Amino acid sequence: MRAEILIVACLVVLGGCAAPPRRPAPPTVINDARPDGFPASVRLVTTDLNGFQRRAPDFFSGIRGAASGRPVNILALSGGGSEGAFGAGVLVGLTHAHDRPRFELVTGVSAGALIAPFAFLGPRWDEELEAAFTTDHSHLLRRSAALQFVDRVLFPLGRDHHDPLFDMVDRYVTPALVAAVARQSEAGRRLIIATTDLDTEETMLWDMGVVAERGGEAARALFRDILVASASVPGVFPPVLIHVRDGAHRYDELHVDGSVTTSVFTLPLVAGLRPQDLPPLRAGALYMIVDSQLARLPKTTPIRTIEVLTRSFSAGMTYKTREAIIDTINLTRRLGMSFRLTEIPVDFPVSTVVDFSPKFMRSLFDYGERCAAAGRIWVTPEQSIKRNMAARERSTAANTACPGTG
Question: How many Å apart are CA 192 and CA 271, to the nearest integer?
């Protein structure tokens, strides 16, 4: 044990000496820097009030126009690691039930970011969505949690700047997918993905339709890199360097998992300060798929650093998601919108959010698909609290009751 600790300590020291070079970050939080060749509308810092005010008219008029006179439908997809298989299953199940809305706005964070393009493009992409979340992805974690951390210390940007997550996303972000997103964006629909900019410690919102409309390999590469960054859990997967330019000045930004700063979102943080910009959403419908549990059954935590860190991160994410749901309730009540929620029940057998084994991901996908196809997927926040607080023991994947009552 002492020898292993000494080896890890030495690797940490050596890793600190081998940090890869990068350009400095932009000098201010709010700036005009963006990836070379892309317009300023490609992204927004979630706290940029003036930027939101400038872009809101075109953004919301596009969404309203895409709805063709009916109420606007919005889908928000949360983070959750391997538990994203639940959200993928829900969408496929809604297709089977012929009850899947056409969403004018889709937002995604972390695992939700990987689901979001398929959710945005609709049922025709269900086959790709299912393959992405039920294929054997156990290679995403090549080592134990401790050795995975050491790997990140030694190779902060991955080996040869690639890693299994990058390779997986690169396989699914095809030119056809990017072109399809571009066509929907031109019609006014919006696909928004969140990353965390480590240099500013702020949430960055990316308009993936604007990315896609650029076309060519540059668009596909940036589209892929944003999705990888949004799902890159710190310490597990490498961060992503994004090269940006502000006039003649070139900078580098380091982006990681969007759920570091926001576990799920509907609109930029500053949107609540500009209620006059939100009328196009009135009387619409907001759907939220929480790819995690909003409560955990008690479990004795071993006094080991990795377990303490893991449980602490999990607790923080749970409370952050609950707060986001409360904010969403307030937003929908203000705008007269309906709000539907679904989540993984507390009694469903979940081990860790990094269980990428095909057995676990398939069981979670099948559960979400089965419940959605049966019309028993949506709950109110009150129903969620009542069930989660009443649970006494873990069930099995086959016997866990669906979130909704139908």
Answer: 15
